[in-house]
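Suppose a colleague, Dr. K., hands you the sequence of a protein chain of 391 amino acids and asks what its three-dimensional shape might be. Before reaching for any lab equipment, you can write down a predicted structure in token form. Begin with the sequence itself:
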Amino acid sequence: MDYAKLDHLKSWGNISHISAGFTAVLIGYTSSIVIIIQAATSAGASPLQIASWLLVLGLMVGGSSIAYSWYYKMPVLMSWSTPGAAMLVAVVGQYALSEVIGAFIISGLLIVLTGLISPLSRLIEKIPSQLATAMLAAILIPFCLKAFTPVMSSPATFGLMVVTFFVAKRYLPRYAMMLLLIVGVAIAIFSGAFIGQSISLDIAKPMWVTPEFSLMAMLNLSVPLYIITMLSQNLPGFAMMRSYQYHVPAKPVFIGTGILNMLFAPFGGFSLNLAAISAAICMNEEVDEDRKQRYRSAMWAGMFYVIAGLWATAVVTIFLALPKEISNILAGLALLGTLLMCMQSAFSDESLRESSLYTFLVTLSGITLFGIGATLWGLIAGLVHKKVMGK
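The predicted structure, expressed as tokens, is then:
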């Protein structure tokens, strides 16, 4: 018997690796799934098309996490951009679904170009993180506010879910969203929301949408999605890996994820990027004392993402059946932590506080000038103010 091969196989069944991978997926999935479904719905996608979005996101994120982690022997965990999805909810309704898909392709192309053209990556890095997070905070605030409006229409539902969230954040912070989701679904079941609903366990199928390319969609969707993906996911993702002494080259990550983004965009793959916060779950000492073995936890996470994507049809059926109040509470509370971090970062540098404030207010205003939306104008306002003030 070859004991070396046996030990190698056993190492893949390490419970701490599997647990870390599953936890990372659980946190990433439960904290963003409602927002992704809202984005797809706002874009005019049908239930089958929404399932296609979740399918390809699971395959993209899972497959790339497995591939990069295996190749570099480092925990390279991928994700989608939750703030990017939140931005889409507010904007995609102005465009046809085919134009939205075209915008996803252009966003992926910009990420590829970032990997190929060094000046472009340096230009992105020159955008102050404070302005980017101020823009993100303004995008997230409407979602977080909607979490509290059900207190008037459904006080019992609101009270039960908020109490669950607070208690879970106190004692089981990692699983707060999962517990909140369980309570929300339970309330929906008892209120009769699932009566007449048949939950299919069939594997989801990819649904092609032929892209159209619109200049306005590129300016209002592609560019903001690209900037948000780079500044809120990719750059923090690399910083997170470096903090754990994992040095993965940026160029192949940008080129690879950008190409995958472009290929899967017609099926609903709106973004593919490095995970930031949830990635730490696969990198710390609790995963494995031997840091060279921790990459396996990210590979397990990739497998779980693929599984979740394959059964997206059932997920979509459940979430579309949820009452609007429950969906709003889930989405708003899921984004509270991100909003808090954005607000803290946006106003952390005294020299840029006023510029951040302009970015925040203009983005929040929802204005549209010359066909360009508030997201891009907000960032422009902050950059212009910074330049005028000589900061």
